[in-house]
Structure formats: C-alpha cells, structure tokens
Amino acid sequence: MLCKCFKTSAAGPSEQMDMIDDFDLYENVERPAGHPDRMERCRQCCGHVYEDSNQEVKTPQASFSAMAANGVMFNGECVTDTKHSSEKQLARLVTIYTNLTSQLLTQNREVQQRFNNLSKDTDELQKMLGEWVYFNGSLYQVSSTKKTWAQSRSDCCQKGADLLIINSKEEQAFANRFQKYMWIGLTDVTNEGSWKWVDGTAMSTSYWSSKEPNGGKGENCGDIKNFNAEKSWNDESCSLSLFWICEKKLFQ
C-alpha cells in the first residue's frame, strides 16, 4: 500500500510534480520508525490512502488523476475539489441567509402586532381614565369648578382619592403645568404653623412662594397660586372657593 503526497514545481501541478513522500505500509511486518506518524498525517490531510497493490504509480499526473476527487497534498497542504467545496459553502450560506430573513420578517410582524395592540390598549385606558392624568405611579384630576378646601377634599375622597400630596420636585413641576390656582392637600388647621399633609405626614420639603406662608390663623390651607414659578405655594383662608387637584395613588 502506498501513500503518496506531492509538491508542485514552478510549472504547476498539472505539468510537473515532485514526490516528497512515498512510503510502503506492510501488514504483519515491523514498521520502520516514523511510519505511523507519517501515515496518520496522510490520512488527516487527504482523508484516504491511495492503494495500489499491483503496480506503482509512476507519474505524478496519474497519481493526481486518481486521487483528485478525495484530495492530495501539495506544498505541504491538502488540496481537494475546491470548486465543489465552494459551491457547497455558497449553498449553505444562501440557506442561512434565507432562514434568517424569514425569521426577521416573522419577528417584525410580531412586533408590529404588539405595537398595534398596545396602542389600542392605551386608547381604551385613556377612555376609562376620562379626566384623570397618569404621572409617576399616581392618577391626577383637576376640577373644572371651584369649592372650599373641605368641600374639595370631600370630592376627592368620594372618588377614592385625596387632595394632592407633593413629595418631589418632579411632582411639583407636574402640578404647576396645569396652571390653575388650586387647593392642594396641605393644612395647619390643627396646629398653627405646623403644616401637614392630608395623610398626616409632616411637610418635609416645601415650595412656598416668597414671604409665604403669611396668613397666620386666618389662612390655614395651602394652594398653588404662582404656578409660573417653581415655588408656587400660598396659604389661604380655607373658606375661599378655588379649583382643586385630586391624587389617586396606584401603588402604596
């Protein structure tokens, strides 16, 4: 059995090749040192052993013709049917591209459908909310009529809400955007000068307008008055009729 590997000359493989490895493998005979490694190298490169038990291949061209379909070694590298291999690789890439394109189109349709459903749900939710406006975990509603502070709070409570409690700079800016002179849930009616929110918590951060509060015992309820400025709070007589803003917390 012969394993033949060739290298090309300057004239090219089809015209002249010089054999660089030619070794016999004998069964039931002690192999010369180094033969197994070279045989394995031939197998790894060409994927086969060229076998000729009757006659020796005398010309490189004949050996090349016999082994071209499976692969031979030129210049230390295995050469196979590169045209066939390239066609298979191209077909594989086309299949991958087609599959990916199909997947992307399917995903795009699914995303579009979800967006349409979300838009529909948003419209339906807005209809359910009516005059309520969502902001940062709460719903807000500004009245279209005017009432006293106590009447305003009663209206909010009947709706499952209460007068607005402002807990942050962002919420203060949000309330100012309504541009209404309106009651908020702040009062010191229980203890003059000790302002508390309607849930009983003490006022920790304030946005009083300049020189406010200044009404003493005659003005015990808080409102937003100067809404064009960040610090817009004012104290007023609780019996005055103003617009009001209710807040319904969605997450306690």
From TrEMBL:
It holds the Pfam family Lectin_C. Keywords: Disulfide bond, Lectin. CDD domains: CLECT_DC-SIGN_like. The keyword Disulfide bond applies. One of its GO terms (molecular function) is carbohydrate binding. Residues 135-247 form the C-type lectin domain. PROSITE patterns: C_TYPE_LECTIN_1, C_TYPE_LECTIN_2. This is CD209 antigen-like protein D DC-SIGN-related protein 3.
